[in-house]
Amino acid sequence: MLDLIAPFFERLYETTGLNFSPFYDQYDWNRFVEGMWISLKLIACIIAVSLVIGVLGAAAQSSKNRPLRWLVAIYIESFRNTPPIVQLLFFYFALGAITPQVDMGGWYEPVIGSFGWSVIALGIFGGSYNVEIFRSGIEAVPETTVEAAESLGFSGLKTFIYVTLPLAFRICLPALTNNIISLAKTSSLAYVIAVPEITYTLNGIWSDNVNVPEMMILLFLYYIVLVAIIARAMAMLERRLALPGYGQ
Questions:
Q1: Distance CA 120, CA 170 (A)
Q2: What is the C-alpha separation between 66 and 220, in angstroms, rounded?
Q3: Please, which residues have CB within 8 angstroms of residue 178's CB and are 6 or more apart in sequence?
Q4: Which residue in 33, 74, 163, 229 has the most C-beta neighbors within 10 A?
Q5: pLDDT in tens, 81-108
Q6: Strands (E), 70-135
Q7: Is 104 helix (H, G, I), strand (E, B) or coil?
Q8: What is the torsional sign of CA 61, 63, 66, 68?
Q9: For the residues of 234-248, what is the DSSP string, one character each?
Q10: 150: buried, middle or exposed (CB in 10 Å: 19+, 13-18, 0-12)?
């Protein structure tokens, strides 16, 4: 692909001075592709962690165990009331300093690296919002539907897994889409702890080539396209799962 686009961007640089080096320089191209790949992996992991926490937290909030509900409430307030960048720095520098290290034969590596701490910190941050989103969806499921499932012999757990959660998921999809998009954009904060995702990578390229405006345009376009794809995919999922009378 680079062979096809390189002549155009080389001429563009020679005639206008616009230096989009990742599109004609093999080394920068490799860095750019690697940065995009790590960025996509990071976003996928963060969203997955936040969804798991959201479902488990919402289930805990619906339980009759009061201490468990208080613990979830404390978690939500703690992580919604602090900036995600502060949480990221806290996890990486405070908790990272006391986690075990592995002997790599002459030097020590932390068990959890910067990528892992980014997934944990931002996943927990996103999960605090997802708990409330799933809780609102669960509460919107009609009580008569739950009672009908119980009358068919479903246990409380089976009712939650097979009836309440699938309906709640459909109801809360619009709010969930907003939070997933927000998390995709928030993933760029991993740059501050040196995760080599797209922002970090383009920073390295503009530092080497002094082409800050061009790389900022590239970064801007990257997130516009990425968020548009996520929004489109979630809209398709919402239409596919739509049930008359539920969230319509």
A1: 26
A2: 46
A3: none
A4: 163
A5: 999 999 999 999 999 888 888 877 777 7
A6: 101-103, 108-110
A7: coil
A8: negative
A9: HHHHHHHH-BTTB--
A10: middle
